[in-house]
Amino acid sequence: MKNTTRVLIALVLGAAATAEPLNFDRRTPVVQVVEKMSPHVVMIKTDVRRKVRVDPFEGLGFRSFFGGPGFVGERIFTSAGSGVILDRNGTVVTNAHVVADANRLTAITSDSVEHPLTLIGIDRDFDIAILQLEPTERDQLQPTDIDWGSSADLMIGETAVVIGSALSFQNSVTVGVISAVERTIQVPDREPYFGMIQTDAAINRGNSGGPLVNIRGELIGVTTLIATEGGGSDGIGFAIPVERVQTVYREFVQGIVSLEERLGITVVNPHVVEGIHPSQTDRLGLRDKQIRGLILVKLSPEGLASQNGLREADLLIEVDGRSVVDRRDLQRALEEHEFGRPLPVAALRVNPKTGEVERVSPEIPTDPSFEIERADSWFGFEVEGIRNEVADAMGVSIDDGVVIRSVQRGSPAQAAGLAAGDLIQGIDNYRIQTVGDFRRLQHFLQKQEKVRFRFLRDRQMYVVDLSQPAGGQRL
Q1: Quick one: CATH architecture of 40-133?
Q2: Active-site residue flag, 97
Q3: Topology of 260-364 in CATH?
Q4: What is the C-alpha separation between 385 and 33, in angstroms, rounded?
Q5: Which residue among 38, 97, 147, 320 is the active-site one?
Q6: What is the mean pLDDT of each run of 10 residues along the chain (475 residues)?
Q7: Residues 218 and 185 sit within 8 Å (Cβ to Cβ)
C-alpha cells in the first residue's frame, strides 16, 4: 500500500512539472496600447530655485548657542511630472501646475534621451501647458502624430490606461476603467474643474500631465489630480478631457483662436424665467413654463455672435443642441463642437415696446478663418521662448517672458535701443509669459501706431514706446 502511494505522488508531481502553460495570447489589447503610446510619453524634470533661510551651523549643534537667524540663500528643488508628445514636431502637453515657476525644464523620452524644453503657451484656467522639445546631438527621436480620441462618447466601465512617471518611476503603467464623466471638482484658491473624467486607474504624484488612453490607443484626457485621504492613490483620479487639450493646442501651435473667444460673448449671467403661458411655450418651441438660460450682458462688436444675429440682453438657451444654464454649460458645448462646422444657437428676445417674445436661431459659421500668424517678429526684433540656460543666467523662470533673439538694423526696435538678450515681460497693459502671449498680442495690437514694451536688462526694468514711421511697413 505504501509503495502504491509513493507511485501516485510521483506521478502527480511529474505531471505538474511538465504541465503546458494555458494557450492564451499574452499580447493583449492593453499591451498593444502601451507599445503604441509609450514613445509619446515623457518624464518632465522640473528645477525650481527658491530663496530659503539657511543656518550655517545646522547639524553642528551650534544653532541654539548662537541663536542667530541664519542668512537667505538659494536652493534648487527638483520634481518630476509627465507629458505627452502630440506631433512629429515634438510638441508636448502637460499640466500648467507641473511647469509653473520652473527655472529649468527637461524631458526624458522613452529611449532615456534628455531634451531641454521651451514653453510655448500656458493656460492656467484649463491647467494645460504646451511645450517644445529642443533637439539634442544624440537626438534620434522620430515622433508621430498622436491619435486624438473623444470624451463625448465615453462609456462608464470601459478600459482606461494611464502611463507616466508615477513617484518618479518613468513609464509606469496602470489600468482601470472610466468611473464617471462630467465631474466638477472643487479646488482651493481657484475656479472649479468641470467636465472632468474620473478613473480608478492608479494616478500618483508624478503622473500629472500624462495621458489617459482608451483601448484603441487614442488620447482621451490628461491626468491632473486625485481625491485622496492619505496622499496616495485611492482609486479616484481625474483627467482633463481631450477636447480641452485640443483647444489649447490649436491656439498655441496652430494659431487658431478658441471658438469661445471668436464668438465674443464676454459677459453672461444665469437667468430663470417662470410662469410662461402655455401658448407662448408652444409658439416658441419651449418644453415647459420655466426657462433657464444665459443673459448676454456684453458682446464684442467684432465677435461672431454679434455679427450673426445675437444681441445684448438676449437670453441664450441652447448651443449646439444643448441647454445652457451656466457658463460651464456654454464652455463645454463649445469645446465639444465639431471643429469647423456651423454652430446652431437659440435665444429668446423681448421686444421692449410690445413685450412680445421671439425666438432667434442663427447658425454661426465657425470656419477657422480667424487665425494668429506664427510670426515672432515685431517692429524689427525677433523673439523666442526662455531657454534653460537663459533662465539660469538671468535668474528668471521659464514663464517670465520672451527673449529678443535678434534686432534688425535700421528698425524702430534698434532706434529705440532694444538689443538681443533683452527680456520682454509686458506689452501695453498685458503681462507676457510665453511666445504664445506675444503672438496673440501682436495680432490684436498690430493696428496700433504706438505700442509700449516693458523689458528686463541686467535685472533692471525699462519701458520703451515703439512706433512705425509714417508710410512705412510694420516690420
Answers
A1: Beta Barrel (2.40)
A2: yes
A3: Pdz3 Domain (2.30.42)
A4: 34
A5: 97
A6: 52 57 86 96 90 59 51 75 95 95 92 92 93 76 87 95 94 96 86 90 94 97 89 88 93 86 86 68 67 89 91 92 88 84 91 78 79 80 93 90 94 94 95 92 85 93 84 41
A7: no
